[in-house]
Amino acid sequence: MRKKTVVFIIIVFLMVPLCVYAGPPLEAVKTQVNKVLDVLRDSSLKGEAGKKVKREKIRNISGNMFDYTELSKRTLGQNWSKLNAGQQTEFLGLYKTLLEDAYADKIINYADEKVVFGKETTLSEKTAEVQTTIITKKADIPIYYRVIQKGADWKVYDVVIEGVSLVSNYRNQFKEILSNKTPDALLDTLRKKVGKA
Questions:
Q1: What is the mean pLDDT of residues 16-31?
Q2: In the Cβ-directed half-sphere of 3, how many Cα atoms lie within 13 Å?
Q3: Residue-level pLDDT at 80
Q4: What is residue 95's three-state secondary structure?
Q5: Range of the domain at 165
Q6: Residue 42, pLDDT score
Q7: Which of 73, 96, 122, 135 could form a disulfide with 114 if both were Cys (CB 3.0 to 4.6 A apart)?
Q8: What is the pTM of this model?
């Protein structure tokens, strides 16, 4: 997958998080999309100081909306068991930081595109897929959010844009590293990506 597409996936992934909201997945998506868009469109938050505040608000919203343990396990797949408990904890933190922070500046520059909500499809007893479309000046971009029910809450465990799964994309990258290197090498790669090396 081209780097530009991966960047866009991350942008949308962070731009439209799900909620800690009791109710159907589609309603959860709608509620949180509006919260994030309100932050991005807040005309009182201007300049560099405004961008910093927006970034923090988006981090606070998205930080509570995703099931990062589920994301981490699904991304690493069978390789998850190759990491010991300490490595799993560090991976989870680094992966979360990568997803939340790496493209924060691009999220702040989000233009006023329209979000259209489509149908909600049940995938299993505890999972569902919510279809949305981002209407841009150049194209309509389908974004599907795969969510899992944890108690009364629905949380993101994967995002699919134009048929490409975020989890599958990173799984391929990490699988390649782990095919001939140690879990420590993967963690070192992630540390460098998030500036913690």
A1: 65
A2: 1
A3: 96
A4: helix
A5: 3-193
A6: 87
A7: 135
A8: 0.77
